[in-house]
Design a protein that fits this description.
Helix content is about 65%, strand content about 0%. With about 140 residues, it is mainly alpha-helical. It starts with 17 loop residues before the first helix and ends with a helix. The model is unreliable at about 1-5 (pLDDT under 50). Keywords: Membrane, Transmembrane, Transmembrane helix.
Length: about 140
């Protein structure tokens, strides 16, 4: 049984959810790892791995905790390019248990995406210009009557 399907205790205040402390500890370990000097990288990486293991093992006690964990995991999966399958599975479980209709992480962007956005924008501009020109023509005809 995954952690996302465990019973949630909703009568405790959201700030007392143990997952929030685990998220803070993981964020701190990640930040320390990012600025670690070359000599301490292996030790900081071990600390980050331990914090990640604690994060994934800590239960969420509230729905708010689940949402906070999902947000935290999505950020790391998307921005930090983490390829940890346990994180991906946890994010997918959380998204499913929260009945969210978006994937646990965004699909990878394709090189064609900027061109498609430009074409869509050009289409919007052409439609706006057609409406303006059509309005001007109709206004001109209305003044002749």
């Amino acid at each position: 049984m995954s952690r996302a399907h465990t019973l949630k205790i909703e009568h405790i205040p959201f700030h007392a959810d143990p997952i929030l402390a685990a998220i803070d500890a993981h964020s701190e370990a990640w930040a320390v790892f990012q600025v670690a000097p070359e000599a301490a990288v292996s030790q900081r990486h071990a600390e980050l791995c331990a914090a990640t293991a604690r994060l994934l093992a800590t239960p969420c006690a509230t729905r708010f905790g689940e949402l906070a964990l999902l947000r935290h995991l999505r950020w790391h999966l998307e921005h930090d390019e983490v390829l940890d399958t346990a994180m991906q599975a946890q994010a997918a479980d959380l998204a499913a248990s929260l009945n969210l209709d978006f994937p646990p992480c965004s699909p990878p962007r394709r090189p064609l995406a900027p061109l498609l956005r430009l074409l869509a924008r050009a289409g919007e501009i052409a439609a706006c210009l057609a409406l303006i020109a059509g309005g001007a023509v109709l206004t001109g005809f209305a003044t002749l009557l």
